[in-house]
Write a structure and sequence with these properties.
The chain has three helices and four strands, in the order βαβαββα. The chain is of the alpha+beta class and 116 residues long. The chain has a single domain, classed as Glutaredoxin. The model has no long low-confidence stretch (mean pLDDT 82).
Length: 116
């Protein structure tokens, strides 16, 4: 039985196929609005940090905005309650109000889990 050889070189007149560069993981930009160092604000940051380390390791940025020091930032993102997490995903912007203790709700907000 004759053997067939596969030509791995590009055909004349056709460019060789290009290898794709590995895609950089998309980074979620998270902005947590707080009003000072209240227990609820501290708890919200701690809860957010744990969730990000578990589910977004190396793919997130957290920016904490204290509205007592930067009230104009809260106006720009239309913040009406504290603490509020503003999630700037590659596809959309979402907001979650509270201390972020409801893990399922936060994961849905971060687009890491479908609604339950």
């Amino acid at each position: 039985m004759p053997t067939t050889k596969t030509n791995t070189r590009a055909r004349p007149g056709k460019p060789a196929p290009r290898k794709r560069a590995p895609r950089k993981p998309e980074v979620s930009k998270l902005r947590l609005y707080v009003a000072g160092q209240t227990p609820k604000s501290i708890r919200a940051f701690a809860n957010l940090k744990v969730l990000c380390e578990e589910h977004l390791k190396g793919r997130y940025q957290i920016e904490v905005i204290d509205i007592l020091e930067n009230p104009q930032m809260a106006r720009g993102d239309q913040i009406v309650a504290i603490p509020t997490l503003v999630i700037k995903l590659p596809q959309s912007v979402r907001k979650i109000i509270g201390d972020l203790s409801n893990t399922d709700r936060v994961l849905v907000g971060l687009a890491l889990q479908k609604e339950v």
